[in-house]
Amino acid sequence: MPKFFVESHQIQQNYIHLMGEDAKHIKTVLRAREGEEITVCDGLGTDYFCRIISLEEGVVGEIIRQEKCVSEPKTKITLYQGLPKADKMELIIQKCVELGVDRIVAVSTERCIVKLDKKEEKKLERWQKIAEAAAKQSGRGKIPEIAPKVLSFSQALAEAKELSGAIIPYEKEADRGIRSFVAGFFGEDVGVFIGPEGGFTEEEVQSAVEEGVLPITLGKRILRTETAGMTSIAILLYELG
Predict the structure, then answer these.
(1) 221 HSE (CA, 13 A, CB side)
(2) Which of 105, 158, 194, 208 is buried most, with the most CB atoms less than 10 Å from its CB?
């Protein structure tokens, strides 16, 4: 059964109240009945295991036990994703959330073909809903944030300077891999820069290097933009333990 996320005001004493789409999903899609159990998370790292006691006004669950969520990685990863074409961003968000990314920032780069313009707000709202659905499905302890606006490449670099470290996969880097980066990394958060379909320009990579972002190789093959981010995050989390 998928996990449901609630805000603190929905947790009252020993009971949790679910309303809206979550309650509808439990009743009509899962066809849950009173006495069955559901898992609810406060989005702050605590899981509540509840027994359904009422399906009349929303869903009311009685807390049986609670424990710290163990599905969240210790190292927080922010993905700075160059805007891809079509619906690739939706796939990237879904899979990277499943893998364990903490935050995703859409970035406008020199070779981006897509310009959101007036559609930006609606796109970002849709992407956040996709992140939420993926978090529920994969049993995450929090809903990863989709940054509330698209950043320019220079803005993304400036933001990433606040992290403990950052990497940028680059086809001309032949020696340093993610394992080498991790060997000297002891921080709590890391940024991953992924270019759009055409990749980053040499000038963008140089700018990133000047801001402390380390170029790394993902191997001898050039990966698509929708593959590169997932691969980087998967290897990073594996190497970080």
Answers:
(1) 6
(2) 194
pLDDT digits (tens, 9 = 90+) for 147-201: 999 999 999 999 999 999 999 999 999 889 999 999 989 999 999 999 999 999 9
Query: What tokens does 21 get?
Result: 């789409």
CATH number for 76-239 (one of 1.25.10.10, 3.40.1280.10, 3.90.850.10, 3.20.20.70): it is 3.40.1280.10
Q: Are 97 and 135 in contact (CB under 8 A)?
A: yes
CA gap 18, 40 in Å, rounded: 9
Strand partners, 44: none
Average pLDDT of span 31-60: 92
Q: How many residues does the chain have?
A: 241
| Res 1: pLDDT | 63
Q: Which residues contact 154 (CB under 8 A, 6 or more apart)?
A: 207
Look at domain 3-68 and name its CATH class: mainly beta
| Average confidence (pLDDT) over 18-47 | 92
- Nearest 5°: the CA angle 111, 114, 115 is 110
